Amino acid sequence: MLFSTYFRALSAGKKIALVAVFSALSIVVNVFSIDVGASNKIAFTYAVCFFAGCMLGGVPALLVAFLGDTIGFFINAQGGVFWLFGVTLGIYALIMGAIMNVPFGKGRAAPYLKAVIAFAAGYLLITVGLNTVVNYWYARIFFWGGQPNKTIGVYLAGRIGFQSVVYAVNVGVSMVLLPVMLHIGRPKAKHKKYDTAPQNEEKV
Predict the structure, then answer these.
(1) N or C: which end of the chain has fewer CB within 10 A?
(2) What is the DSSP secondary structure assignment for residue 127, as one 8-state letter?
(3) Poorest-pLDDT segment among 54-58, 91-95, 123-127, 198-202
(4) 24, 74, 91, 146, 176 from 123: Cα distances, Å
(5) DSSP 116-182
(6) Cβ-contact 140, 147 below 8 angstroms
(7) What is the pTM of this model?
(8) How far apart are CA 41 and CA 114, in angstroms?
(9) Distance from the Cα of residue 195 to its chain's centroid
């Protein structure tokens, strides 16, 4: 769960390279994300975290998400405490990696069932829960002068519609590309070597 079977089988150099590739992709999607007001953002960070979790496992995916969000913030800094979102995004990636690499279920439908569970858990725990709390206190400290202009329930109601649409788009992209990720991460079959030398003919 914490490290995928595919990731564990790689050499140390390939592990570092793969984490670097996913981190670079995470940086790119963070840099080119679009802020919509103080509380909403259009980005494909969830999809990157999902794929990192699938292929690498929970711990490497957490590192990918945190590095991507933190470095992306410094490249395109706009002030504030956005490093907190690197933490929440890292937890999201950890959830994705842990659930997608749980050894249960067989057959072609199993990865898709785990993906549905992972996305549902990520939506409730991170998008609805943790990110809302972080955003609420960010707005309260930096935009409302420390005063609770609205309750967290009202704040959640105001942001969840837009964030649900962004999340749904990330889920759609992830599910479409999931077969590709499964193919890449599938263990290579070991073929037996057969003796091709001609056999002696039976004497009649």
Answers:
(1) C
(2) I
(3) 198-202
(4) 24, 26, 12, 28, 18
(5) HHHHHHHIIIIIIIIHHHHHHHHHHHHTSTT--SS-HHHHHHHHHHHHHHHHHHHHHHHHHHHHHHH
(6) yes
(7) 0.82
(8) 26
(9) 46
